[in-house]
Amino acid sequence: xxxxxxxxxxxxxxxxxxxxxxxxxxxxxxxxxxxxxxxxxxxxxxxxxxxxxxxxxxxxxxxxxxxxxxxxxxxxxxxxxxxxxxxxxxxxxxxxxxxxxxxxxxxxxxxxxxxxxxxxxxxx
Length: 124
What we know:
Helix content is 73%, strand content 0%. The protein is built from three helices and no strands. The longest helix has 49 residues, at 25-73. The N and C termini lie far apart (75 Å).
């Protein structure tokens, strides 16, 4: 045993009976349609990701602002409403980035914004 594969490794020396037949026009059109479907699916996924990032950022922004206003009405340290407002500002930036297609960065900003709000909640 020489350790070499049993198939031909030199280009152009394949058995002509087992070689693949050239693609017909109908097969070519079907392949092009499948590529178009894949592109359309990719666009829909990207659009869905943008809407999700923008929507989650907007929802968390509103929640953070509402929590900041509620904490201002009570006698809490000034750090608490400031943390909620700061976290809401970070989430608003994430919503803007998400709507522009920067969904990975938006996700990390959403996580950071919620962490800032949670930190403010710890001092409440």
